[in-house]
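Example (one chain per record):
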Amino acid sequence: MGILEDEPPRLEHPALLYGEIEAFLDVVVPFVTEGLEVGEPVVVAVGSDELAALRERVGAASGVRWLDTREWIPHPASRLRAFHELVTSELARGAARLRLVGEPVWPDGPPEHVLEWERYESMLNEVLAPYPVTLICTYDTSRLDPAIAGSARRTHPVVWNGRDTVSDAFVPPAELLLRRNAEVPSPPRGAAVMASPDDDLAAARGFVESEADRAGVPREAAMDLLIAANEVLTNAAAHAGGAAGVWVWVEDGRFMCQVEDRGPGIDDPLAGYLPPEDAASGGRGLWIARQLVDLLQIAPAEPGTRVRLHARPS
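Predicted structure:
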């Protein structure tokens, strides 16, 4: 997993598949200690058992930044942003290269949320591609669904499972996001709807806010949803001639908001995932929206586009 001295700085993004803690430590302990020896910033975000075992081997006062993956930004879009900010800030402070270890927070909830973490793993290849970083993503095969462990081969160019293996199943991010996208069906019949909001964004926001309040969505989550919905509606007004409708409903205890338009569709599968370079750059609205909700899904509506927003849980 090393980088040759004459190679230009580049991202290395292997997956570590392990079934026992010792197999995890055999790879991660030398990775961490070698980073400390050469003065590279090291950040480890894994489960509590792995953290405890690592700190015992490496030493609690080692200079490593230790993070419990289930407590440190356990949300895919926000963690993607956090890794980008962490890397760029360390490089700005003079670091030549960074070493990161990250364990995704695979949820027990709906399959579309599991799928979003797979998409996150893929997008790390795109978001961190310009930077001199080695990021090992860890997969405990003893407790993960085999389908999740198998997804590591699609999202990582190299897989470590006793030895380094180039993954012949690796799929570039743009292609994977096109392939691995949950369906977004029409809203249920009982959903409240505001038809043809056109350019009346204030009325559309008022509709979403009142329905969220009626459904008992906590105020902070409702305000985040409102801002996200406004960004999606603004995007529809700018690129699709306005929204054809806004629907809201409660599904399995989760508050949903869906915006549909009849425009040409969104061609870029990476829309809203890449950090915008400046306030005027494209995709900023969708990027903001992804940060504020539990999940944002984009799918074709034939014609047009469906964008479904899942409010963050309380």
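Caption: The mean pLDDT is 92.
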